[in-house]
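input
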Amino acid sequence: MNQLNIYLSNLEHNYKFLQRNLNSETNLIAVVKASAYGSALPAIAKRLEKLGVNIFAVAYSNEGKTLRKIGVKSRIMVFYPQAYGLDDIIDNKLEACLYSVNLLKEFREKLILKKLKNFPIHIKYNTGLNRLGFNPSYCDWIVNQLKDDTFALKSIYSHLAVSQAKKEMKLNKHQIESFLQLREKHLKISKITPKFHLLNSSGLFNFPEYQFDAVRCGIALHGFANRPEWDKKLKPVAELISSISQIHIVKKGEYVGYDFGWKVSKETKIATIPLGHADGICRRLGNHKGTVSINGKIAPIVGNVCMDMFMVDVTKISCDEGDVVYVFGKENSISDLALTADTISYELLTAIGPRVKRVIYE
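output
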């Protein structure tokens, strides 16, 4: 029994909490990239649309295409369009977020060839994350590119690099100031008045005064906001459970797992769990770093995580083969698990493989 339980009631709680913290004129863009952060895209997207979401965001065009196939009618932004996916953006009535000169020119040529006008786009500026986006110095060039009717500019945005860090951090201040300057210049030199947005999930918690016209929330919808005090206001949507396949006794001096992963110092009761790194349980969680919960007790992961299973020490736990194992969820926080693996909740959530059954609970 390996399954990822998806609680839509918790998703609704998180959505409504975020909405209560928005200004009346601020829209919530629901980010559902990476199969809704590794959960269950159809169920998540349909519930959010039912709750009132009118703009979704994905990473690539094929994800937007999937949303259309499952019946999503709302607007869909594509954050990182690639040249090969521009036709999908057009055919599925998606909205391209343009971030480079070459991409903008290529998309323009394609729209002209297809005799399409006023196609919805968004402009992404790089204010300090240094991943994707136009340099702010291109502002005048971009405004000039938008003078004809090829594009319909919907929004201008940027992305904070350390939105969960202290507000006074130098990079945060620089990015916000840069974006404010860009906003002022666009409004001054252009006849177009688009929407503006800067904040992601943790940005909304940290900088509510800079909500502008929209915020982009992804991980917060799933119950996390990158700080423990913020996480407490949300509810985790996903819960990963498994069961004990076998229990056996390992004698003092013997080893557990591949490559002599753990040498047993005394007679130990070991339980084997049928999940491994092929299912998203990363090897970094092995060797007493990660833990699971069994019958209300914490059991450390011992030895190296295998491809299809891992072992835990249950010497002090009363348990039997077939008992439920909580890998993360209400009984074992994924945030704590991520800390032990020197990673973040995003990685653990999106790594859950297709062998794990998704079970939806209303």
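quick obs: DSSP finds twelve helices and 19 strands in the chain.
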